[in-house]
From TrEMBL:
Signal peptide: 1-23
Region Disordered: start-end pairs: 30-56
UniProtKB keywords: Signal
Domain of life according to the entry: Bacteria
Tagged with keyword Signal: yes
Polar residues bias (residue ranges): 30-52
Lineage: Bacteria, Bacillati, Actinomycetota, Actinomycetes, Kitasatosporales
The species this protein was found in: Streptomyces griseoviridis
Protein's UniProt name: Lipoprotein
Amino acid sequence: MTRSRTVRRLAAAAAVSLLPLLAACGAGTDTDTGSESHASNGEKTTDGSSGQLDIPADANADLKKQYLLENAIAACMKKQGFPYTPVAPEDPAASWTTDGADYELTKKYRQKYGFGIYAGIVYPGDAGAPGSAAARQDSDRTPNADYVDTLTPGQKAAYDKALGAFPDPKAGEKNWTGCLGEADKKVYGSASARERGTATTNRNQANAQALNGDPKLVALAQSYASCLRKEGISVTTTQPTGIGEMVKLQAFESTPAGAGGVSAADGSGNAQESLSKEEALPLLTRDIELAMRDLECGKEFRAAYFPKFLKAPTSGGGAG
């Protein structure tokens, strides 16, 4: 199953923000030639424009740059003769609303899905259930992926070349190529993706140290931990940046093979069947109970933690 809710990261390096583009759009590796634009209905077209995203007025500086990046990629691809639909980036702050930042929304989420470990099996048709068939189908399809599916092998190769690729550190590469590289330089300047990633890592570490040294958060984390112990829940950390996701991570680590609705592998690498809905239902019930106890114990802590975290994010939320 997908564990994206567990490993969300607010302050990813700019290079990392481009990875979904490659996964969704860099599809072909065939060697035929050809670069003409190709419409989604299979007809050739000379119009590569797919529009530009409107930047929200309340977007912060980092989010604005992500919007500008998508628009720059689309403009570059148009010049290369290919349509590219700019994808609106997710507001990092909004991504935390059901993961601890908003108590009421998180409560509603956990009352149905728990930590999201077994919900995808019990609710396969619910796109809101992590790991469900509906959620996987939604995540696999994008306008750009749909467009690439219409291309011939030669056109896919030309599209991939125009779009560009991730820098290969083994080859000494530091920057993206193609339109990804052109857009990256236009939006972020001359610093390489690797250099910006290092700067972001250093900033994240400094932010984490500040949060972990905040007297109020330290005291609230201790109270949170005491409540968990009274509930019979193991406490492995009391650091403000770690305690919020601690119980959830422990739940994931104890997940039986086959959870999430997809085949798993045992220790020897042999495929194992997914859990059935009947097998997953009682596990989901227990997961919901655990998630709700964790939420209530950490209610006061999260109310104080998230306003500070969202102003100075680290590489991990710690309060989900």
